[in-house]
Amino acid sequence: MRALLIVLEPLGVGSANPGFGLPVPSSLKQLFDEVPDLELPTLFKLGLGEIVTGNVSEPPQRTCAASYGRMTQRSAGSDSLSALWELAGIILGCPFAAFERLPAEFITAIERESGIEFLLNCSSHPAITPELSNEHQRTGRPILTLDPEGNLHIAANPAVVPSDRLLQICRVTRRHSDKWRIAQVSAEPFCCNGAPACPPVRLSMVPPRTILNALSEKGLPVEAIGGINDAFARSGITRSHATFTRAESLSVIERLWRSPQNGLVFAHLQHPGNSLRCARAFEEFDRWLAQFLNQTEPEDLILITGSNNGRNREEIPVLVRYDGQAVPLGLRNTLADVAATLGAFFGISEHGRPWYLGEPLITFHRPRGFNGP
Questions:
Q1: Which residues are bridge partners to 68 per DSSP?
Q2: What is the Rg, in whole angstroms, of the alpha carbon atoms belonging to the chain?
Q3: What was the pLDDT predicted at 30?
Q4: Looking at domain 104-204, which CATH architecture does it have?
Q5: Most exposed: 110, 229, 285, 348, by fewest CB within 10 Å?
Q6: For the chain, which residues score pLDDT lower than 50?
Q7: CA–CA separation, 127 vs 215, rounded Å?
Q8: pLDDT at residue 79 in the model
Q9: Mean pLDDT, all residues of the chain
């Protein structure tokens, strides 16, 4: 028994009644408007077309190869980490911090313990400008940036601050960040021209118990691809696969799928912000998906969903391919239905009951007394 969960970011389909003010337009529809030649035949064959048009509670207007629906995020806050946690079964009642400016006492405590002084990036964008790079090399001070989601980025050129020292500073920062409910702290080595020297290391708050913990405690492999290991602070992950590009992530999925082991493969694919590059990345994924689905069996569970960075609370699509089922899933009131689906698929129970948050997206016909693989 094996399952694949892919989260595509950004991928939102708007909302007619978000509960957060005015209706939210669809970022996916906007992408189609801005790139008219964008075509996603594989995703549309699965049921994305029904999702885009909002037809998620009625029989499909066209033949679909998967079950299809929309989901809304219930967790407080407007960040991508809370969305990933909710997919794994955690609904946050209190949002992560989102400071406009970092408290001076917070910065001072980190500098004192680390024995450094930060070079503060006044911009909310973590990109390294030539001016910042030059000042960093002149002073030897690591660059600290607070992004719009409230996450911290600590950047340094390895020739100035060695990577192991940068990671040490970030670990100190992570410890101090917990009491302020700062979601993530990233260590980001960069080259002289400001380009990334290697993939960032993101240190997140440790989440409460998730479906990933329940799976791994049962002896099932949980393979994390891309930023998933960092997002869950390694909690519930049995093996991680760091990747620098989407192509690398897709290659790892294929390699793991060739192994006949049970368990979950969980991948997070982030696409570029530029509309044209984002459209081409979605097309690349769609072509990959067409050939990958030929390698799957009817009893494999394939879940494809999205994340919209959380900022505008768009609904997100969900596609579920399993055993030939193709039914409308409606509008779900929590992303935790994905965790409940994984729990039902693998026969996970907590204290003799099914996974306690959310409802399975589809029905799995199991023999009486089924308790997983």
A1: 319, 328
A2: 21
A3: 86
A4: 2-Layer Sandwich (3.30)
A5: 348
A6: none
A7: 37
A8: 81
A9: 89
